[in-house]
Write a structure and sequence with these properties.
Shape of chain A: elongated
CATH class of the largest domain in chain A: Mainly Alpha
Largest sheet of chain A: none
Oligomer: homodimer
Order of helices and strands of chain A: HHHHHHHHHHH
CATH superfamily of the largest domain in chain A: Tetracycline Repressor, domain 2
Number of domains of chain A: 2
Distance between the termini of chain A: 61 Å
Structural class of chain A: mainly alpha
CATH topology of the largest domain in chain A: Tetracycline Repressor, domain 2
Number of strands of chain A: 0
Strand content of chain A: under 5%
DNA sequence: TCACCAACTGACCCATGGTCATATTTTGTC
DNA sequence: GACAAAATATGACCATGGGTCAGTTGGTGA
């Protein structure tokens, strides 16, 4: 009797459906202006039911953020496993992929930037928070691994600290600059893409063997 | 009769007092958990009075953020005007100063990271938003100028794009990584300081003449 | 002394996150 | 099929807090 298993699957499905609905609502109205009633309606559930699956509005948001990280990780994994590319070539492609991600998954990219805002209001013990941290860690490891591959195939200098550099890059990727301050046209004519690419160029020069 | 002038001064003073109170409350309770009633009480005013000086809670927050930028700018101006330092030396000191700022003005530093959150809910026409953008622009110009000084005194490569590099650095400084994701002990043993310093090291290698 | 006006007050409005007693559906048992 | 127990869902309700506004206060200038 796979009743329990089926129920578990259904519960998982409901949860995913709620996140789907939340994405549509949050991405459309913005986190602050979207209400839990909106989400409930979109999910074809009552508000109370939402709270059977998520502790709070913030946690629901973290679930979306986790998805964003998941998408990005999958993209990076593809790069990591690609044959016929040297380490430094993969490293170069990182910037490109990230820009593509920001362009093609703009809403998800933006969700990453509100990590702080939502994270603070979620208990650290939750499953969602844990997955989020795990995804994040994975992404850093992938970047780090790409650098290390470059050191093995001798296209990246041996003395580069792969772990530190990967963290620095990640910080740069998710810096608030690209999407907010920079997008104030008043401030600059450069677009975020420009800046990220230029920054990468300099780093590549610094680490190339 | 300087009555009008005096009144203007007093109004300005009130405004500053409110921001003082708001800092004490927001920095203590956190933006989300602090209420306008708290701020009003701390400022020894009624809630209604706050709204004579600031359009919204978010705008009050932007006023704090503007102060943060102002503090940081003053620090950077000192560096810019320092004699007896070459361009590359000043550039090197930028990282140090920023880390010091983050350590000694942690609350103000954190306020910078919530730019997006508050910015979205403020009309672009407001005086506070304008000053914020201006301070931001100034800081970018200072960083850019430091790089250009290095190019003049030949300690920094001629072909470095000062404007783009300054924006990339600013993005890195205000990335969400340092204070949030990185501070999850689970993820890494490095502290933000480490990462920023290492990143700078690489860049310095790349741009040094 | 008085009219005026800017500064200020705080009771009030209302939107919304979150709760909970109740209702509905599903499941297991006989 | 009947029925109790458990799981799931409902939506009226509550508390909170951002924001408003009719009314008060007190300084100013005539």
């Amino acid at each position: 009797m796979g009743v329990i298993e089926r129920k578990e699957r259904e519960k998982e499905l409901r949860s995913e459906n709620i996140i789907d609905a939340a994405e549509r609502i949050f991405f459309n109205k913005g986190f602050e202006h979207a209400t839990m009633n909106d989400v409930a309606e979109e999910a074809e559930l009552s508000k109370g039911a939402l709270y059977l699956y998520f502790h709070s509005k913030n946690e629901l948001c973290m679930a979306i953020l986790q998805r964003s990280l998941h998408i990005l990780r999958k993209i990076f994994v593809l790069l990591l496993n690609e044959k016929n590319l040297t380490g430094i070539e993969k490293f170069t492609k990182l910037a490109e992929l990230f820009i593509t991600f920001a362009k093609e998954h703009t809403n998800h990219y933006n969700s990453l930037l509100s990590y702080r805002e939502h994270r603070e209001n979620c208990p650290a013990t939750g499953k969602i928070i844990k997955s989020t941290i795990e995804e994040n860690q994975n992404i850093n490891n992938i970047i780090s691994d790409i650098i290390k591959m470059g050191q093995i195939d001798k296209t990246i200098k041996k003395n580069i600290d792969a772990d530190r550099l990967s963290l620095a890059l990640w910080g740069n990727f998710t810096g608030i600059m690209p999407s907010s301050i920079l997008s104030e046209k008043v401030i600059t004519n450069f677009n975020p893409e420009d800046i990220i690419k230029y920054h990468f160029e300099l780093l590549i020069n610094a680490i190339r063997n």
